[in-house]
Amino acid sequence: MNSPGIVLHDLTAGYGRHPAIHHLHATIPCGALLAVAGPNGAGKSTLLKVLAGELKPMTGRVGLPPEYRQQLAYLTQQPTWSLDFPVDVHDAVAMGCWPWLGPWRALNEAAHRRVAEAIAAVKLQGFEHRPLQSLSGGQLQRVRFAQIIVQDARLILLDEPFNALDESTEEEFLALIRRWHDEGRTVIAVLHDLERVRRYFPLTLLLARELVAFGPTEAVLSAEHLERARHHAEAFDEHAAPCPLPADEEKDEVVHQ
Where does the record place the region Disordered (predicted)? Predict the structure, then answer.
């Protein structure tokens, strides 16, 4: 039986007992190229953390196809490494092999080849032995994209992936994202630039702590929906009382379909 995709059922998630996402319902089809848009503080990054398994839902369910849990790559908004740690470009990219090789096994021939191909794909040939602390912001973002390439994942989550990139480099990585989509991978990206969303992403989920609209991008990013999202964001009271949990305090984790 074919998977329906990623199923978000009455998803509420946040920090402490203060939800950043309220009662979200959506089904994201397998192979989708989806932008997650919305005002600052709308819950976009929180949604990616839930999908990546880094944050448990307060209530509701996230249904992920089993292969997605096993083959998931997540580009966080900020690097997960410290520039004080002495690691070079090659070894940083090789960290992307851990999900399928394991953190304590030496790189085999296939892993070395995959790392070299990923470094070439992001145009960092010749930088393999350069320490990360010597790189520019744009070069560091290339390293992070190379880590994603190495993982060869079915589900790719990108949180503001174009930080520190110039326009020509953005175009390179947009072309890479389109290629992932053409290969049948599911790509979900948090983005603020609505013109970029309109040009490159056929599906959009518009959040303002609750779902505003979900579907074809042209319809979702209407003036009416954007105004509604803005209104919800402005009306949010960060000092409101914590959300009560259900009587049984059921907290559903990410589940396999």
Answer: 237-257
